[in-house]
Predict the 3D structure of the following.
Amino acid sequence: MRISIHNFKSITSLVDFEVLPLTILSGSNSSCKSSFIQIFLLLKQTIELDSAQFPLYLEGKLFPVRQYSDILSSLTNGGKLKVSLVFNKWELEKYKDFPEIGLYKVFDDYSLSISFEFDTKEDNIYVSHFETKIIIHEYKTKPEQFIRCITNDKNYDVKTNVAVFSNENLYENPDQYQIKMISYSAFIPTNYEIEYVDVHNNIIKEVQKLKLDGIKTMIKDYFTSINYIGPARDEPKEEYRRIGKHMTVGTHGEFTAEVLDAFALKNISYWKIKEFVTG
């Protein structure tokens, strides 16, 4: 997975940073290492809460934040935080049963890009821009397949160039109705409300579902798989519990013994480092 981060704490702009199963951050003090980890914790606690009330959950235990402005590098340019995630075909293979992902499995090389942008109004955080794109690398002239949700003050817009993300009306007849609302769960759009005038001159309102279940499941799986051990560690003990129900090591490593014992007889997977960068 590759991640891009803009306007988060000490990270003003980081583009296409590849996160591998083993990723080591090395650098001097104040070189953005903590900020890089904290954006993962912020997204993790948000997607795991999965609430329509919190597009960004600032009160989580992993990364508690006093207010939105505290996590921004700068308040200029609207004070927006933007994150992009890009997954390759190998990472998407597990989710091919979802239509919006499985439709593209016939291609040899493609990737899925997901970007979301946050803004505030009257101290309320909202998702101002969400976009999902399927990029087919073997056909460079083929347009990207996308769905884009935009919220600007009280104006809403949903655009797509492929029917797989929503109903056919959004794709074929986008100008026949107005988007009145876009609903989210965490930072993933779930549905939108439309308004139009029918043939009898009646004003009709409908709620249409967005077909992003596979994308949401993939993002949730990715961030749920992340376990964070804080900089603090428990003092050594004379004995440790071996029997327990914890499947994570805890934020301070307090359940490490339980996890090690639970996985003691399981095979170990590892990735051989093929290249390294110095400097």
Notes: The mean pLDDT is 86. DSSP finds six helices and ten strands in the chain.
